[in-house]
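During the no-cost extension, the postdoctoral fellow (Dr. R.K.) reprocessed legacy sequence entries with the updated structure-token encoder. One reprocessed record is reproduced below for audit purposes.
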Amino acid sequence: MTRKITQYNNTFFRIQSSRSLHQDATIEEAAKALANHEITAVELTEKCISQIEKTRRFNMFVTDSFEQAREAAKASDKRRKDGKTLGPLDGIPVASKDNFCTKGVRTTVGSKMLKGINYMLG
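Re-encoded structure tokens follow.
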């Protein structure tokens, strides 16, 4: 099977697979593509990371956790291979605002007052 994920309209991704028609990937479509083994969570995560890197100049992300995302994607792919997914969104990359404390990720709430202070959960 040939798989290819390409950038589409600077925001969305077009999933191309020998087993599916070209489609603009909504979360639901990406979840279906993952469930049908047309793409992997690692491939989808790497494409999202690539898009974040390409748009760094817009300062949309204060802190990235790419390594955690990659590890989570690998774990998702393994669960999917073993038939033990956590649910329909298992493997879908997620970005959250910098005002939510996340284990192992620096939280600044975008505040200069908190610069240099690392609020991190466990």
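Strands lie at 3-8, 12-17, 20-24. Residues 7-12, 15-23 have pLDDT under 50 and may be disordered. The remaining legacy entries will be reprocessed before the final report is submitted.
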